[in-house]
């Protein structure tokens, strides 16, 4: 008899928190349990919907990156002379050792790089400030041509 009573009180204590979880106003155990099961089923459906939406977003992101890889970025080199300094801006497709090729072109032209910013996330982009060694006069067209040759040479080596 004592064990039956203990079991009842334990089960009542366990079921006391269920109405708060299910927002049930019923007192009957069966309806409380059914409400909790219904709530769990609804949550499971919501979770599946969120998972499907996440998978769709991942697929869209992958398609976006695939398209970015196939877009051909034109080779662009801009050189401006600001006082004694040359400001060089380069952008082209990512791949290969383009940074090394551009820096070698600077070396061949006799330019010292004072400052450079490089990005290789989706395409190769570089902005550099260079100064001629030994007060040489460097023509903007010569610098542009040398950098374009370095980029093209690098692109043809790795295709």
From TrEMBL:
<protein>
    <recommendedName>
        <fullName>Plant bHLH transcription factor ACT-like domain-containing protein</fullName>
    </recommendedName>
</protein>
<keyword id="KW-0539">Nucleus</keyword>
<dbReference type="GO" id="GO:0005634">
    <property type="term" value="C:nucleus"/>
</dbReference>
<dbReference type="Pfam" id="PF22754">
    <property type="entry name" value="bHLH-TF_ACT-like_plant"/>
</dbReference>
<dbReference type="InterPro" id="IPR051358">
    <property type="entry name" value="TF_AMS/ICE1/BHLH6-like"/>
</dbReference>
<dbReference type="GO" id="GO:0003700">
    <property type="term" value="F:DNA-binding transcription factor activity"/>
</dbReference>
<dbReference type="InterPro" id="IPR054502">
    <property type="entry name" value="bHLH-TF_ACT-like_plant"/>
</dbReference>
<dbReference type="GO" id="GO:0043565">
    <property type="term" value="F:sequence-specific DNA binding"/>
</dbReference>
<keyword id="KW-0238">DNA-binding</keyword>
<feature type="domain" description="Plant bHLH transcription factor ACT-like">
    <location>
        <begin position="76"/>
        <end position="152"/>
    </location>
</feature>
């Amino acid at each position: 008899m004592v064990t039956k009573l203990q079991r009842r009180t334990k089960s009542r204590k366990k079921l006391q928190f269920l109405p708060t979880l299910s927002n049930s106003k019923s007192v009957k155990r069966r309806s409380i349990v059914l409400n909790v099961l219904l709530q769990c089923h609804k949550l499971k459906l919501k979770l599946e919907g969120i998972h499907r939406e996440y998978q769709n977003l991942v697929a869209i992101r992958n398609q976006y990156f695939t398209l970015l890889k196939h877009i051909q970025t034109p080779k662009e080199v801009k050189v401006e002379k600001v006082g004694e300094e040359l400001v060089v801006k380069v952008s082209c497709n990512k791949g290969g050792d383009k940074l090394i090729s551009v820096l070698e072109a600077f070396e061949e032209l006799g330019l010292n790089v004072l400052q450079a910013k490089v990005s290789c996330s989706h395409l190769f982009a570089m902005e550099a400030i260079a100064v001629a060694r030994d007060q040489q006069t460097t023509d903007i067209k010569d610098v542009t041509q040398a950098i374009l040759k370095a980029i093209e040479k690098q692109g043809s080596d790795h295709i």
